[in-house]
Write a structure and sequence with these properties.
Elements lengths: L2 E4 L6 H10 L2 E4 L1 H18 L25 H12 L3 E4 L2 H15 L8 H12 L3 E2 L2 E3 L8 H11 L4 E3 L5 E3 H7 L11 H6 L3 H31 L9 H5 L4 H14 L3 H4 L14 H4 L1 H23 L7 E2 L5 E2 L7 H29 L22 H17 L21 H31 L8 H11 L12 H12 L2 H7 L2 H8 L1
Parallel strand pairs: 1-2
Antiparallel strand pairs: 3-5, 4-6, 6-7, 8-9
Length: 517
């Protein structure tokens, strides 16, 4: 099992995904624990100060002017967590909860939050034990951090609330901790606030989306290549010198993938002669695939830059500075993350939209250049893939709605103390749904283009697109009379989400093709 060290350097997206999805174990570095202990000593000194210090000897938010006596501060911290664990709705996915918990642990291990080492060690132990606190869908405004989601996690470390144990069973938090020998936390000054003041939920979902979209955009290139080839399009428009006339990085990368995937195609060779093919140029959904896919790649690169900065950040309020000051700040505001989450949702919607248009062209006998209507076996008796396109169109319509930005909205809260919020959590939640939708739209295109390639026989596809065709055929039967179609789409979607098609693009596609023939 992979082991991730926390506290030595910023985490990477890959490490977040490894802990969130693959159950990678966590070790907190000795240096981090030493920093945490030094930071805690400073907080304990301020706790004895008769002057009030926010989050240490005062209330929170709009109640920041209320001084809290020493003998009430444990109650203050516990009350903060209980009252802020106010989420509602369905449970959030375990991978999201693990990601946000890891990211909060990384900040705690920085030594800038003022918690005790035992708090850091407890968070690591809960993650390593496979315990997943129950976090609810709604409750975060993405400012002052993802307060409600992080409070549900913190509540579980106190031995309160519900969790999923390592087997996935819903159990009481106290029982789950006892079963693995973890003592519940009793929070001291500042610790409750330190556990919930961060952008960890939205950042965790951004990291997961970055990982997924990198694979989905490669899959989109493969699906586009199969569509271009099966619809007798041309690869001449993807030439490197044409791409160089518009030096967009993502566009060049996508076009290079298309050229490689289409190289050596008998189908394309069959209509290169102008006497055979009289079309001057292909429709935009074929010809402009690298422009759209490339723009999405560039958006992904920008989002990755923002994620990298945030992964290196210490997000807490107040925060303990390097010279020992405890200062209020606004670094918990989720705007940087929220913006790119919304930006990615726009790119996802557009990549899905052009994919659906390629699918639709393959099914229309007026535009498919010789293919039967809806790729049906017996036209009239069979409907072929008609309704598969309906499914894709329905998803694309929803993706357009999900592309409406969440980050342009703000609802004041906490008696107008928190009068501008990011809505980053909402942006992240809708992006997760959008990523899943894109995978399904691409699966429909792959099913469609694979059948279209079959119907071009005896002409053979290129080695690269042939590998994609063979992968579809590993779970879906070839052309024939109508059959129950939903399982076919689900099977290909599972391969898309697993990154199987993306792996063909990054691997030696010629070798893979030869092995699959």
């Amino acid at each position: 099992m992979q082991q991730i060290t926390v506290g030595e350097r910023p985490l990477s997206v890959a490490e977040v995904v490894a802990v969130a999805r693959a159950g990678a174990s966590i070790v907190v570095s000795e240096g981090a624990l030493e920093r945490v202990a030094r930071g805690r000593a400073r907080i304990e000194h301020l706790a004895d100060d008769p002057e009030p210090h926010y989050g240490i000897s005062t209330g929170f938010g709009a109640l920041a002017t209320t001084f809290i006596a020493t003998d009430r501060r444990r109650q203050l911290q516990a009350s903060l967590i209980r009252s802020h664990a106010a989420g509602t709705g369905p449970e959030v996915e375990p991978e999201v909860v693990r990601a946000l918990m890891l990211l909060r642990l990384q900040t705690l291990a920085s030594g800038h939050t003022g918690v005790r080492p035992v708090v850091v060690e407890t968070y690591a132990a809960v993650l390593n034990a496979g315990i997943v606190p129950v976090v609810r869908e709604y409750g975060s405004l993405g400012c002052s951090g993802d307060l409600a989601p992080l409070s549900h996690v913190a509540l579980a470390t106190l031995g309160e609330g519900e969790v999923r144990d390592a087997t996935g069973e819903l159990v009481d938090a106290a029982a789950a901790l006892a079963a693995v020998g973890i003592a519940p936390l009793v929070l001291e000054e500042k610790e409750g606030l330190a556990l919930i003041n961060g952008t960890d939920g939205m950042l965790g979902m951004l990291c997961l989306a970055l990982h997924d979209l990198e694979a989905l955009l490669s899959t989109a290139d493969l699906a586009a290549a199969m569509s271009v080839e099966s619809q007798l399009g041309t690869d001449a428009v993807f030439a490197a010198d044409l791409m160089a006339l518009r030096p967009q990085v993502g566009q060049a990368e996508s076009a290079a993938n298309l050229r490689a995937l289409l190289e050596g195609s008998d189908i394309m060779a069959s209509h290169r002669d102008a006497a055979v093919c009289t079309r001057v140029q292909d429709a935009y959904s074929l010809r402009c695939s690298p422009q759209v896919h490339g723009a999405a790649r560039d958006t992904l690169a920008h989002a990755a830059t923002i994620a990298s900065c945030e992964l290196a950040a210490v997000v807490d309020n107040p925060v303990l500075t390097g010279d020992g000051r405890v200062e209020s700040n606004g670094n918990f505001h989720g705007a940087p993350v929220a913006y790119v989450l919304d930006f990615l949702a726009i790119a996802v919607a557009d990549v899905a939209s052009i994919s659906e248009r390629r699918t639709d062209r393959a099914l229309d006998r007026a535009r498919s250049h010789g293919l039967p209507p809806f790729l049906a076996d017996e036209v009239g008796v069979d409907s072929g893939l008609m309704i598969a396109q309906y499914a894709a169109a329905g998803i694309v319509s929803e993706l357009k709605r999900l592309a409406v930005p969440a980050s342009v909205d703000s609802i004041p809260s906490s008696a107008m103390q928190e009068d501008h919020v990011s809505m980053g959590w909402a942006a992240a939640r809708k992006l997760r749904r959008a990523v899943d939708g894109l995978a399904r739209v691409l699966a429909v295109e792959l099913v469609t283009s694979a059948r279209a390639l079959d119907l071009r026989a005896p002409l053979a596809p290129a080695p690269g697109t042939g590998a994609g065709h063979a992968l579809v055929r590993s779970v879906v039967a070839g052309p024939g009379p109508d059959r129950f179609l939903s399982p076919d789409i689900e099977a290909v979607t599972a391969l898309v989400l697993a990154g199987a098609f993306a792996a063909l693009v990054s691997a030696d596609i010629r070798t893979i093709s030869e092995e699959n023939r």
